[in-house]
């Protein structure tokens, strides 16, 4: 499908998601939904993005709630004449690397589901809409822990790997319908709230400080990650599906 007029960005009020909105508008997307949990952050992001002339529609929601997410996507689809691209760039709160023996067993399920379920829900909700409109593109944001988890990322890596395998299989199932599904796996991102939090102190700060030293090509910015996501979401990547693309400045080469 060669349309790239409408997009729905989950996690679009900050960090990589907000940068994706900017990149998409620059690429000519005319109508964009941004979804997230924070009302004020969504309002501010929508106001900022609307300055460009695009129509920006905010949805306050929790992407862990499949029914609510489906309702929002369906509403935007109906009001926009279809959804050409969906991006899921959610960041679970309170999740950071730590050794397995230090991980509270009672939190394991929460970590797994808070990372894995939003992209699964987003994809499941988007596919029926894209089937009706003749195709579309879905880009899920995971992390390099999906492919090369470091010490402290055993649970996080398991959750991220589930996103990659899910996307790969869903892409295989839906390619005949003109629906493309790809995953982007950054590592440390230099200018996001999550990146700053990871470097504040403790185990994660030591882990990511070492990672940054290995980024001989430089730690990517949110805008650089967003450019890749925008490319994969757009018709420029119309021959690409089921792929997992890392952008990490050389931290790993897996």
From TrEMBL:
InterPro entries: NAD(P)-bd_dom_sf (IPR036291), SDR_DHRS6-like (IPR051122), SDR_fam (IPR002347). Keywords: Oxidoreductase. Pfam families: adh_short_C2 (PF13561). GO terms for molecular function: oxidoreductase activity. Belongs to the short-chain dehydrogenases/reductases (SDR) family. This is SDR family oxidoreductase.
């Amino acid at each position: 499908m060669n349309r790239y007029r409408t997009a729905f960005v989950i996690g679009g009020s900050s960090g990589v998601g907000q940068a994706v909105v900017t990149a998409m508008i620059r690429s000519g997307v005319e109508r964009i939904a941004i979804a997230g949990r924070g009302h004020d952050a969504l309002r501010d992001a929508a106001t900022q993005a609307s300055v460009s002339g695009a129509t920006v529609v905010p949805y306050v929601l929790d992407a862990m709630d499949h029914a609510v997410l489906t309702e929002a996507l369906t509403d935007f689809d109906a009001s926009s004449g279809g959804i050409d691209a969906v991006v899921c760039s959610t960041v679970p709160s309170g999740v950071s690397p730590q050794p397995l023996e230090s991980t509270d067993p009672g939190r394991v399920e929460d970590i797994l589901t808070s990372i894995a379920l939003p992209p699964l829900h987003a994809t499941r909700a988007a596919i029926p809409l894209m089937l009706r409109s003749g195709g579309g593109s879905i880009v899920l944001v995971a992390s390099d822990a999906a492919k090369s988890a470091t010490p402290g990322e055993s649970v996080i890596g398991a959750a991220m790997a589930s996103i990659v395998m899910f996307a790969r299989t869903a892409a295989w199932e839906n390619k005949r319908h003109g629906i493309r599904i790809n995953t982007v796996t950054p590592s440390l991102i230099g200018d996001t709230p999550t990146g700053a939090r990871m470097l504040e102190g403790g185990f994660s700060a030591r882990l990511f400080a070492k990672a940054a030293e290995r980024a001989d090509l430089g730690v990517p910015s949110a805008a650089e990650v967003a450019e890749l996501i925008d490319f994969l979401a757009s018709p420029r990547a119309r021959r690409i599906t089921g792929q997992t693309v890392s952008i990490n400045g050389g931290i790993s080469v897996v």
